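User: Predict structure, ligand 2-acetamido-2-deoxy-beta-D-glucopyranose.
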Amino acid sequence: TSSCKKTTKVHFFLASTLISFLFISPFAQLRLQMEDVLGDGGILKEVIQSGEGPPVPENASILIHYSAFLEYSDQPFETTTRCKYPRMMKLGRDVTLFGLQLGLLTMKKGEFSRFLFQPDYAYGDLGCPPFIPAAAEVLYEVHIVDYFDSAQMDDFIALSLEEQNSFPLSTLLKVVDTLRGFGNRCFNQSNYYNAKDRYKQAVRLLGNRETQNDADKETIQTALLPLYLNISLTELRLDSPHKALKYSNKALEIDRTNTKALFRCGQAYLDLHEYESAHRCLISAQAKKPFDVDINNLLRRVAMCYKKSIDQQKELYSKMFQHLRSPVKDKCLLIFSGFNSFLLPPTPSGTLLLLACC
Ligand SMILES: *[C@@H]1O[C@H](CO)[C@@H](O)[C@H](O)[C@H]1NC(C)=O
Ligand SMILES: *[C@@H]1O[C@H](CO)[C@@H](O)[C@H](O)[C@H]1NC(C)=O
Ligand SMILES: *[C@@H]1O[C@H](CO)[C@@H](O)[C@H](O)[C@H]1NC(C)=O
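Assistant: Predicted complex:
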């Protein structure tokens, strides 16, 4: 009978384990595969997809997607997944949840992780009515798309010109790089005005630099060139071809044969319907990079637009010619003034028209 008792006991034990396993709460089940970040059980973490590079630095600006859940709820009480782009959040300013703040510092670029925060590291004993109940444990799913070390950048920008100049040039270049990274990110999200602001801020910082020697001067110029090209492209996106041209010319002042700058010039002139100038820039670019697909495609487009504009003008003139059946002096003048503003060389039909008119 003792062996019978034993097996009953074992059966009872197995059954209760199974039952407790079946009825274990969702968060408790997650906890089994998570690691304790601080050692006090307040922040538990599970890496779903690991990232790369160094972990997020203090005061960084982070580009993240995240969703936050309460236990037994499929619907997040907070999420960025409905946004088209990840959210940019500055640590220490935009991230207010203590646990999330600490959790983010353990993450790397590209990482996707799951965190469980005890109330002390989340919304406390009071919760946050009506959404977060009292003493709630919360689950965060976080994906770090990218981050920028904005602490250094912000500190540097806040300094006076004199103080800025007292830093080594390498510090300035690092700040400029960060600003440009920000700008590129804004650009990539079609946020062209902000992108332009970042690029221009970087240009200003470089312009403020008092340089002692030629080597430093050259370093500054080298850093300015890609920024001018970035601004030029941004102005093109903003439908400001005149400004785009201005900045591509600034780039050309630094490097007369820079193909990217010549290409931007070509784009700007095309937008301005100045086809001969566009052609001239692109031919120079092509001379340096004969097999560049972008350059060759744009050259073809310029040629097509040029031809189309000539055809349209021909049509315009022939229409005017029809109206000249009963010659009036005013109309004659109109053709003359029209002809003067016509940038392209006179076409045979244009010449004929002039003769007919006079
Ligand atoms: C982060 O910001 C805080 C507050 O502005 C500051 O006290 C701290 O020194 C900064 N940390 C770094 C690493 O810049
Ligand atoms: C720009 O966005 C696309 C997706 O929209 C992404 O694949 C690409 O890596 C981004 N580039 C930069 C420089 O952020
Ligand atoms: C800005 O310039 C850098 C370096 O030339 C380039 O990698 C980046 O794609 C450019 N971004 C834009 C939006 O022009």
